[in-house]
Amino acid sequence: MKRLFAAMLSLCLLAGCGRTDSTGNTCRAEESSGDGDVPGKTEETGADAGGELFRIIRSQDGAAPLLLAKESGGPGDVYTLSPTTVEPTLDGRSTAAMDLVYTPGTLLEITYGSVLETYPGQLAEVTAVNLRSDGFDDRCALYLRVLNDLWAVDEGLNSDITMLSVDLSQTGLSDSEQAAVAWVFGGMHDISETMTMSYEELAAEGYLSDTAPEVDGIPHWKDGCLFTITEQETGDNELNGARNTVTFDAQKWRSALGAYFFADCTAEQALDGHWGDYTVGSEAIS
What we know:
Blueprint: H1 2-9, E1 42-44, E2 52-60, E3 63-70, E4 78-81, E5 89-90, E6 93-94, E7 107-111, E8 114-116, E9 121-124, E10 128-131, H2 139-152, E11 163-170, H3 175-188, E12 193-195, H4 199-204, E13 224-231, E14 239-240, E15 243-255, E16 258-269, E17 275-279, E18 282-285
Parallel strand pairs: 4-9, 5-10, 11-12, 11-13
Antiparallel strand pairs: 1-8, 2-3, 2-7, 3-4, 5-6, 7-10, 8-9, 13-15, 14-15, 15-16, 16-17, 16-18
């Protein structure tokens, strides 16, 4: 039974965290360790009436603390779950004889009483944790790999930044998953000011220089870098035989003359929900 459970849930593990708030603007709060020791206000949620559904975005070596995104949630629905004394279940059955692995992409049903108002929020008064064997989807892990690969190429574009924005609004990720991925990515690279704004939003908020029509200059972001993934609207994104595929473009942008592109990338999803490696159709630099 232990081997069966591990086979279902042992996939790629992620680590790290970033910082973004519920609106996509900069959050300067200290990083939460997920162990419940961060001070903050506790909000009663009424969640103890029944479990709510979350997806694991990051785990600590396959164990708690966990970073979670509420299923179909908004940008503020990113949470941590500390180790608890509650015995988890798998599809409602006891896991006492199993070696549990909390794999990113797994769905959890959690019953809790309150949330500590940090960002991410911390689930408290947890009375039930149920792992689901269905609904596994680690697309967040796929896009984190893409973002990190983009970071590593032409690294001079982002070597001196103090802030970044991750725009995943044109992907199939929910708002909560987008915010969680940005949080993780920022933390992986020690960037404390992480946002989820698009180019247009960054320009409107005054982050970019030389964007006014009357200025004869080149738009650029002096202190930051914008990372964007855009899924293409093609038939390849539909279920195709035994696999689901997605085609997307990815780029990092520092200025009109400083950007790097992955074009026509393709990835396949296995029947168990795991996204494998992706291929890059072409690369470009400006």
